[in-house]
Amino acid sequence: MxxxxxxxxIGIAADTLDFALEASEETHPDEYMGLLRxxxxxxxxxxxxxxxxxxxxIIPGTESNPVSATVNSSMIPNxxxxxxxxxxxxNGVLKPSDADLATFGSGDVHIIVxxxxxxxxxxAFDREGNERKLDVLNVDxxxxxxxxxxxxxDIDSELxxx
Length: 162
Ligand SMILES: [Zn+2]
Description:
It comes from Halogranum gelatinilyticum. The protein is an alpha/beta fold.
């Protein structure tokens, strides 16, 4: 299976969004931060062209506190072409901060989820920070638990570098 496809981002899998909302709630009051990956809509059985967000990848070494989350960019695999990002705002404000806008330049879709992390407590933005449409799609993910691509060895080696 190819992990990355070019093309328009047409939506996010409902299971993936639910997962991210739950993870954000668990991370509260700190920010949750991850990168988004997608799959071709037709590979997911949809009769549409484009890419559907299907995975949230947590980068080891991500530093998080109540007002920010910083990805350790040296831990992002070279072959990982994320389609965007997702992070939480524990204060519930569903708008990108100035710091967010500075990081939105790469990736086509950036999702902000906010306290209290209900199904409706999220918005999607483009790289300029303008709100954009993102459909929530009911698709069957081949392996809905494959959110973490890193092995424990990867994490241990990162921790031992500190
Ligand atoms: Zn933010």
